[in-house]
Structures are given as structure tokens and as C-alpha cells.
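sry for the spam today, last one i promise. C-alpha cells for design, 72 residues
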């Protein structure tokens, strides 16, 4: 068990991306490409909203969209 943890410590990004690839492959084969893509878009939007709420509350969301749609 100690050798496995040492391997994961030394190769953390390799292990992480292999796990991400595994999850993506399972999602592609079970729900399809477009549903998987939609799932990730929805997750990204929810993450963004949660992050903005954590950083500045409702004002953080308002400020983000004001900066996003300003004409500068």
C-alpha cells in the first residue's frame, strides 16, 4: 500500500488525467458525446456561478457580467 501511495505522489498528474480520461470514456459510451458535452457545459456554468458567489456574493456575479458585457 505504501508503494502505491508513493507512486501516486510521484505521478499525481498522470494519475489524475488517467482518471479524468476514464470518466470521460465511461460517459461517452453510456450517455453519448453530445450529452457528455452538455453535462460539462452545465457543470462549468454552475462552477462559475458558485465561484463568483464565494468571491463576492451576488455583487460578484453582477460585477462579472457587467465587465463581460461592457463595451471597453
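last one done:
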Amino acid at each position: 500500500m505504501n508503494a502505491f501511495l508513493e507512486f501516486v505522489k510521484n505521478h499525481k498528474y498522470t494519475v489524475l488525467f488517467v482518471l479524468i480520461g476514464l470518466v470521460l470514456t465511461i460517459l461517452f459510451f453510456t450517455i453519448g458525446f453530445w450529452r457528455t458535452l452538455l453535462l460539462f457545459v452545465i457543470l462549468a456554468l454552475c462552477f462559475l456561478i458558485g465561484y463568483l458567489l464565494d468571491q463576492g456574493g451576488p455583487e460578484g456575479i453582477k460585477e462579472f457580467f457587467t465587465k463581460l458585457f461592457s463595451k471597453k
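DSSP finds three helices and no strands in the chain. ok im logging off now
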